[in-house]
What does this fold into?
Amino acid sequence: MCGIIGYIGNNNAYSILIQGLKKLEYRGYDSAGIALSNGNIKVFKCQGKVADLEVYSSNQDISGKAGIGHTRWATHGEPDDKNAHPHSSMEGDFILVHNGIIENFAELKADLLKNGFLFKSDTDSEVIVNLMEYYYRQGKSTSSETAVRLALSKTKGNFAVAVMCKNDKDQIIAARRGSPLVIGIASDAYFISSDVSPVVNQINSLIYLNENDVAIITKGSLTIKTLENAPAPFKISQSEITGLELEKGNFEHWMLKEIFEQPKIISDILHDRIVHDQTGIRLDGLNSVYSKLPEASRIIIIGCGTSWHAALIGEYLIEEYARIPVEVEYASEFRYRNPILKPTDIVLAISQSGETADTIAALQMAKNSGATILGICNVFASSIVRLTDAGLFTHAGIEIGVASTKAFTAQVTLLTLLAIKLGMDRGILSAEVSQKLIQELIQVPAKINSILDNHLDIRIIAEKYKSSVNALFLGRGTLFPVALEGALKLKEISYIHAEGYAAGEMKHGPIALVDNKIPIIVIAPKDMNYLKSVNNIHEIQARKGKIIGVITKGDTDLSSLITDNFEIPEADPLVTPLLAIIPLQLFSYYVASALGCDIDQPRNLAKSVTVE
Ligand code: F6R
It folds into this structure.
């Protein structure tokens, strides 16, 4: 949440910062701003998107070879001009951009008010910048760097900050705790960024800043130390993503591009993880702890939102194929409910970003209890990756669309592989059965492609239902979490109220919603629950409900019964979640598109939820 960019080098900073902010806009987009250093430090900021900032700063002096920028997702204070970043300290000594939440800001603010400081915004961020000025002005020989470190040491909570000082115009100080920040290194410049996406094509190497580290950057030097002023070890690495992945190509939205990337991503995951002769599965990222897994008395999977839905599918699959008890919890509940945790527990966190605050806190709690903690993550060097004992990367490439699509199917693919591997290693699945299941997985990318080929049919159906006020998604077994995920996608990007339900629960309440207006999406492929789902369909039709079926291709019995259908290829139930979610992603996308919604940046949302 919130994106930070910084640049110091030989080129004009303005356009570099603006382009960077556009790439970070998925992290928050209710206001934007930049500060540029050129003799003095000028700040431009306004409510709205980066495009609004460009309009605002046009015809102004935008020269300067160093600067910091920010795109905001509001936590403290409304999304308006005064709360937009950068924030300046009262006398203008410091200018700061901040991502995160300062938990003790009220206390710090009260002290600053007593010391005569005045505030212009409602943000917690302005407290930090004023605290820097307070320390800077207290001691005659206090350097800007010392003031920054002292102020940050007094804060509780999370921050990633980039700071400029009026008296050290060719210097940027960056620091982090809890929120991500990377330093990009080019031959003639340094970059600061919340993630690698804006800088990847401009740098030779990068440093993922560690917790509580402070980087002091000038045009020709970089020093990294701890908040306590001790030298801090750091690793210079090559960026792991290619620039190619960061182009939208001919797709109108990132979300659509990411939906279409899924066959390739799943194919790559399978290629890397299925052994050459297709008789086994290798999950090398888990090697260091794997011996504990087949013997585990239980696995607890935690996550939020879409990642939690993937976790639920993991629960069904691991219990079905490996017969290990699995519990799935919202990380946000788990962390506050004093769960019973034992050192023998395996706690697996699922997270696209690896920066979700609730998931990190829940994982930390599990670690403290002595449990083995694992991760399934998409972002290298993210906080969750660094916290866990071992884990698997989804390798889905950076996900820009705020509504998660490709990360979900990549997570489910890994969980499916894990379930089969554990089943094999525990002697639950015979070699014959496991090879059949592996073959089913190998066919998934081609089957998804055949669904994507029909995207225009799905678009026609979506346009028919665009004026719906509510929608209900029903599924059974592993398709219940798919129903939840389908409903989440629709509400996130089209703002249509949607609910996902276990189809068997329909009679226990949601059936009251059925009338001749609400579309009810029933996921009813030909599997072991087929006849039960057909019963649901009859019950809805008896009440004049409108049904959209997700059905197996060639199921004429159902297609003649239901008005609208999304067909998926015939497949083993093991892989149906990976197929059934595709038409639901496309349906949501095309409904939102027909409504003219801001698909990649839906209102009120941000890509990584780094605050509680
Ligand atoms: C939904 C969505 C969110 C995330 C959730 C967890 O489309 O993107 O629900 O799934 O915020 O995020 P990660 O997976 O980054 O921990």
